[in-house]
Design a protein that fits this description.
It is a single chain. This protein is mainly α and 272 residues long. 74% of the residues lie in helices and 0% in strands. It is globular, with a radius of gyration of 18 Å.
């Protein structure tokens, strides 16, 4: 199936009167991370240096991620004509670099690396689903719908290769859960998202990781609704080898939704 391109987006439907300035800030930060897909591709190809089929998948995935960044960046420049996507991205890459020279996964095993990738795709698919449903501007809504569909498909790709490596490496459910838990926790203090928010929105001032991650989180989390959390929880459970439905999943979903809501309330209170 032919993948969508920027020409498939109906840019002439852009409606400035329906733009939410707070979501523009989130979209700008997301554009930085997505457009950096080539660095992730290099890292994955180094880690899977002897696996040509996976390298092919990784390269296609990276190209699609870069396109996501271009789409979000183009939309953000329409929403904020004073914003320079290329200049913001240069600020981002000048100050944030991935360990692309690594030849071993930072997760310890290739199975662990693919579990982590599944968790990332879970987060991005749920995020763009939530953002697309929360926003009212029609072009951003369309872009988010397209990106969310890509991220769900990317999850399936990484999951398929993860199962292949699990047959060799025999990584336990406990170990997979530990990798997933760590990757989820990393987003709470992630330099990548925080630095992307800084570079995209206020690169002229000093970088403060906590301030930037709180600013990003407060805006992004408001878009979520219970169905987004429920689907994300099921995807995480599946990636770690647990039943993606049932009482444990329902309990985890309720817990995650409460944590998300509490985090937004704390951030709103701190900003007041």
């Amino acid at each position: 199936m032919k993948h969508w391109t920027l020409d498939d987006v109906q840019w002439d439907r852009f409606d400035a009167s329906r733009v939410d300035p707070e979501l523009v800030k989130v979209a700008k930060a997301a554009a930085m991370v997505e457009h950096n897909g080539s660095d992730y591709t290099a890292y994955l190809c180094n880690v899977f240096h002897d696996d040509a089929p996976f390298q092919e998948v990784a390269r296609t995935w990276g190209e699609e991620e870069v396109q996501h960044g271009r789409a979000l960046g183009r939309w953000a420049m329409m929403a904020d004509p004073t914003w320079d996507f290329e200049a913001a991205f240069k600020r981002f890459t000048d100050g944030y670099r991935l360990p692309i020279e690594s030849t071993e996964s930072v997760r310890g095993t290739r199975s662990g690396e693919l579990v982590a990738r599944c968790i990332v795709e879970t987060g991005t698919s749920s995020f763009y689903s939530a953002l697309g449903e929360a926003c009212e501007e029609p072009v951003l809504k369309d872009i988010c719908r397209r990106i969310a569909a890509d991220e769900f498909r990317h999850y399936r790709l990484f999951y398929t290769h993860m199962k292949r490596y699990l047959e060799r490496e025999k990584v336990s459910t406990f170990r997979r859960f530990a990798v997933a838990f760590l990757r989820v926790r990393e987003t709470e203090g992630d330099d990548e998202l925080a630095y992307a928010y800084w570079a995209a929105n206020d690169g002229a001032g000093p970088y403060d990781r906590k301030r930037c991650i709180d600013a990003y989180t407060a805006r992004a989390y408001r878009s979520y609704r219970p169905p987004h959390v429920e689907r994300a929880t099921a995807m995480i459970f599946k990636a770690v080898g647990l039943k993606p439905n049932g009482w444990l999943n329902r309990a985890a979903t309720r817990g995650l939704w409460m944590m998300l809501q509490n985090r937004v309330r704390r951030l709103d209170k701190a900003a007041a």
